[in-house]
Design brief:
Layout: H1 2-20, H2 25-49, E1 57-59, E2 65-67, H3 70-90
Antiparallel strand pairs: 1-2
Helix pairs in contact: 1-2
């Protein structure tokens, strides 16, 4: 994760400014960057939700319950990657008027 996350952080501002222009780069980049936070929240809830068909729960000494719901999480991530690749394949740079 460290290699991919670091690469995205450094490349996204350039891509956003090339794609949308320099006029509102900071606003556009902040909207794009919110995807990291939203993704972290969604995947965090997925990881904590557990699998009702195969509950493998571990209770820690502080009362927290850990679940091992990696299969569902990886399927959701796979679908997101496929959608991202489809968007990347068909997206075109906007024409300036």
């Amino acid at each position: 994760m460290a290699f991919c996350f670091g690469g995205n952080i450094t490349v996204f501002p350039t891509y956003v400014s090339d794609y949308f222009g320099l006029k509102n780069t900071s606003r556009n980049y902040s909207m794009i960057y919110q995807g990291f936070g939203i993704g972290a929240i969604i995947i965090g809830f997925l990881m904590a939700s557990g699998n009702p068909l195969d509950p493998k729960k571990v209770t820690l000494s502080n009362g927290a319950v850990l679940t091992q719901n990696f299969t569902l999480t990886y399927w959701v991530l796979l679908v997101m990657v496929v959608i991202s690749l489809a968007i990347f394949a068909f997206i075109k740079k906007p024409v300036k008027k």
